[in-house]
Design brief:
The protein has 239 residues and is mainly α. It has a domain of 82 residues.
């Protein structure tokens, strides 16, 4: 417990309490704070377990790529620890990211195979523990960036509605991100009026207003709040 204290303090300073007391003035500052939070987590020497390092490798996959051997190692761990639903969730993430790489290579059969495996693992993780808000958040976080024709935005809307119903139990600093994710899901579902209402709320924050003005990203950067309240507790085992 106490050996984790320096990392927790670092995360709070670079992306947690400080950010909530003094919100970043610009999107670039917010992005830099978030990157600093992730770098602090990656640099934590106490996170030496293969499971934790594999999860962190999957987290970096959209920008750095991830070796299939890393995901297979996470799969082997998950098979030995079937109750570790976070390992299952991130294994699912990993296969989906890898499926995207196969799409780039025009190997559509392999891409479809891995995507099916990834979605199955993600859905199974949530189905096994539907009241775990982090699992719901992680599924929605990914699903809102899946092309609308796959219909995953419908699943995302259910998860985001669940998170809203439990908003009093979640860290308040995640609320804006949840709104942002819901806007994407509502747009994909054709609910533009509801999406615009949320946009009006988010525009009150300079950072989110700036983000909303930009072209839709292929995937939103990992924010300091979700690193502190979602990812760090998962790899530190202190949920």
């Amino acid at each position: 417990m106490f050996k984790r204290l320096p990392l927790l303090l670092t995360l709070v300073l670079v992306g947690g309490v400080q950010a909530s007391v003094e919100p970043p003035a610009t999107l670039d500052v917010y992005r830099a704070q978030s990157r600093a939070s992730l770098d602090a987590l990656l640099a934590d020497g106490s996170l030496s377990a293969a499971r934790d390092r594999a999860i962190l490798a999957v987290v970096q996959a959209p920008s750095d790529g991830v070796a299939e051997q890393t995901i297979e190692a996470l799969a082997a761990y998950r098979e030995q620890h079937p109750d570790d639903l976070y390992a299952k969730m991130y294994e699912g993430y990993g296969w989906l990211f890898t499926a995207g790489e196969y799409v780039k290579k025009q190997n559509y059969f392999r891409a479809a195979e891995l995507a099916k495996r990834g979605f199955f693992l993600i859905d199974e993780a949530v189905d096994q523990q539907p009241d775990d808000w982090r699992l719901r958040f992680l599924r929605a976080r990914l699903d809102v960036y899946v092309p609308a024709e796959f219909g995953r935005h419908v699943v995302a809307l259910k998860d985001l509605d669940y998170l809203r119903q439990r908003q009093g139990e979640l860290p308040a600093s995640l609320a804006a991100l949840i709104d942002f994710l819901q806007i994407r899901a509502l747009d994909a579902d054709g609910q533009q009026a509801q999406a615009e209402q949320l946009r009006e709320q988010l525009r009150r924050s300079p950072v989110w207003a700036e983000l909303l003005q930009q072209p839709a990203p292929s995937r939103l950067f990992l924010t300091s709040e979700e690193i502190q309240y979602v990812l760090a507790p998962i790899v530190e085992g202190e949920q």
